[in-house]
Design goal:
Structural class: mainly alpha
């Protein structure tokens, strides 16, 4: 499989293996860090909320700056910096635990800093991949990356649970710290990738660099509608999943074991989506396939609140079908959105567009969760709120449908229906 892939000659699989190792470690931390708070620090519900918010806040505080830094400095060096600093920061938890000095006042900043560094790493890697593999291989490369994420979602919780059982939650974070060191050793074997910057870029202030990225995203005929669609999708997805676990376990009466199995179904379907995303894009066109990927999760999401009206076996089937097609469509969405962005956005803007995209698209999630909880608790109840959220998700496909995204067929084509560097002048400047 590796030998026959055109990606082999580019060195991509070294990058992929580095990312796979760090993703495995990140899955362990995502599972273990909350357990440190619950089992070691006896955190309250409010304190758990603060810990969760600390990770989310990193996107809002550093989201725009991370992209500007990724576009200012050599991309491999940025990734190495983020990896090594994540390794050091995570070591703080087991060290303080062994010294009997660990507290939530330490754990929350650790979550914040690790999330900020992860955003910096991802912004640099999004700019690095096109330089490493070329435009022709972007879709397969992104499929490999997203497939690795899906494998992690299937296997990660089980691995993390076993490590926590053996080592305890605080010492389990040593595994993630080590994974970043291993990842860095692999990254050092890859070529450097200096950003393509003009003379004006070198004298540009940090604020002006951020604003240039915002203008690029705002005026680009493809990226602009896609970020609005992603924000729309994520707002209603946050509404949905704020109530999903509560509804499935308490209202439908599905136990935690079966719930875990349903979660694994999503990981398996994500692998399938990663395997066929590029082929679907070639067959139907990247834009039309993306429109379907934005719409499908909402349509199948309607099965979840509908499950309350049927018997228990059929309710489980409804939830399973929803979980399958939800993850399947989301993975295809992530792969094709990333591929279009990497192919059409000029190199010198890629880091900023990536980080700004996430700043907008992820920044709405806390508000969606609050709206969902308020509607369910005070206004229309849980099933109706889930129905409203699923309907809202379905409508997110309207943004790409009524925009230039619909005409994006093949990123390697220069035909008029493919808006190469959409919204960008011949000089590469944002309008």
């Amino acid at each position: 499989m590796f030998k026959n892939s055109p990606l082999r000659e580019t060195g991509f699989f070294r990058l992929w293996s580095a990312e796979a190792v760090s993703l495995a470690g990140a899955q362990v931390t995502a599972f273990a860090l909350p357990l440190v708070a619950v089992l070691t620090l006896d955190a309250s519900a409010w304190e758990m909320g603060l810990l969760s918010a600390a990770g989310s806040a990193a996107v809002l505080v550093f989201g725009l700056s991370a992209g500007a830094w990724a576009d200012r400095y050599e991309r491999r060096a940025v990734m190495l910096f983020a990896n090594l600093l994540r390794a050091v920061v995570l070591l703080i938890v087991p060290v303080l635990y062994l010294l009997d000095s660990l507290s939530l006042a330490v754990l929350a900043p650790v979550a914040f800093v690790v999330a900020a560094l992860s955003l910096l790493f991802d912004s640099a890697m999004a700019s690095y991949v096109p330089r490493l593999v070329g435009k022709q291989q972007l879709a397969p490369a992104n499929s490999w990356m997203q497939g690795t994420v899906s494998v992690g979602e299937v296997a990660g919780p089980g691995l993390a649970g076993a490590l926590v059982q053996v080592l305890g939650a605080p010492l389990t974070l040593l595994v993630d710290s080590l994974s970043y060191l291993v990842s860095s050793a692999t990254l050092r074997t890859l070529p450097k990738a200096e950003p393509e910057r003009t003379a004006a870029d070198h004298s540009e202030s940090h604020l002006k660099a951020i604003l240039a990225g915002l203008r690029m995203l705002r005026h680009d005929r493809v990226q602009g509608p896609l970020v609005l669609a992603a924000a729309h999708f994520n707002f209603f997805t946050a509404m949905f999943f704020a109530l999903y676990t509560l509804f499935v376990i308490r209202v439908l009466g599905i136990n935690s074991l079966l719930f875990g199995a349903l979660t694994m179904i999503g990981g398996v379907s994500g692998l399938i989506g990663a395997a066929i995303a590029a082929r679907l894009g070639r067959r139907f066109g990247l834009g039309p396939t993306l429109i379907g990927a934005f719409t499908l999760p909402g349509i199948t999401g309607l099965l979840v609140p509908a499950a309350v009206t049927v018997n228990r076996p059929l309710a489980m089937f409804f939830v399973a079908v929803s979980a399958f097609f939800w993850s399947f469509a989301v993975v295809i969405n992530l792969i094709l959105s990333e591929t279009i962005k990497q192919a059409l956005v000029p190199d010198r803007y890629l880091g900023r567009v990536t980080a700004t995209f996430r700043f907008v698209a992820w920044g709405v999630e806390p508000f969606g969760a609050l709206v969902g909880g308020a509607l369910a608790a005070k206004v229309i109840g849980i099933p109706a709120t889930l129905t409203l959220a699923a309907a809202g998700i379905t409508l997110s496909g309207l943004w790409p449908l009524f925009s230039a995204v619909r005409g994006v067929r093949d990123i390697t084509s220069s035909s008029e229906d493919t808006p190469v560097q959409a919204g960008v002048g011949e000089s590469g400047e944002a309008p």
